[in-house]
Write a structure and sequence with these properties.
Length: 246
């Protein structure tokens, strides 16, 4: 199983970025000064790659090599474009089924969702370039290898992806407790994209506003919400249940 690859050293990271490597995050030493580090920071911001400023002790734990104040994680998978995913789904006999993850940040939740997505026939997962959980070794492990099987697309803005999917004839269903509609009252037999929100903030209000439908999971206990990966499984398997009847 392939794991996340590290690059260390400022010049090496700059070269990797310019070579279009799939970099998830760059750790930069706090307080580091100089022209070279400024060049790296400007390049990362231009490419919208996440920068995490950390103490030097963190970098020393990440690698025993001479990191020069910067360590980058390269994703173990290759990402797709949204257009590729939609085009491929439209050539299938079964209706499209996508997942949009809105600022999901926990890599293990991400891995669990990828595993369920693969088992339930999802055509692709769409995440935002900035702020989304990276695909790490933990993600791969939690997904039981499904991260190598389910296509994942990174987009600049999730809201633009919503508009593109809608223009392609795909309905947007947002999973939120801020609605009276049950997930069991939604029709999943047509081309569908399900939006799952972050663990702490839920779905961005602007995305909720442009969604075709919002739906919630009935909760009969005292706890007010499910773990996002469990909630995602409920939505996906309601889709599976309905589609198996068609």
């Amino acid at each position: 199983m392939q794991t996340t690859t590290q690059i260390y050293g400022i010049r090496a990271i700059i070269e990797a970025v310019n070579s279009n490597e799939e970099i998830d995050k760059v750790f930069v030493q706090k307080g580091l000064k100089g022209d070279l580090i400024r060049d790296l920071e400007n390049l990362l911001r231009k490419k919208e790659i996440t920068i995490s400023y950390v103490p030097v002790e963190k970098l020393n734990r990440l690698t025993k090599n001479n990191h020069q104040g910067a360590v980058a994680n390269i994703s173990p998978i290759s990402f797709h474009t949204l257009e590729e995913l939609v085009e491929k789904s439209q050539n299938k006999e079964t209706p499209a089924l996508f997942l949009l993850l809105d600022q999901l940040s926990d890599v293990r939740n991400f891995g669990a969702i990828i595993r369920t997505a693969e088992c339930s026939g999802v055509d692709g997962i769409i995440i935002q370039k900035k702020g989304a959980a990276p695909v790490t070794a933990d993600t791969i492990k939690t997904s039981a290898g499904a991260a190598f099987k389910v296509p994942i697309a990174k987009v600049e803005h999730l809201k633009d992806a919503v508009f593109y999917l809608q223009a392609s004839g795909i309905q947007i269903i947002s999973a939120t407790e801020k609605t009276k509609t049950s997930v069991y009252d939604i029709e999943f037999t047509k081309p569908t994209a399900i939006v799952m929100g972050s663990e702490d903030r839920g779905i961005t209000p602007s995305i909720l506003k442009v969604s075709d439908h919002s739906a919630k999971i009935p909760l009969l206990g005292e706890i007010g919400s499910l773990n996002v990966s469990v909630a995602c499984a409920v939505f996906l398997y309601e889709s599976v249940r309905q589609r198996m009847k068609v």
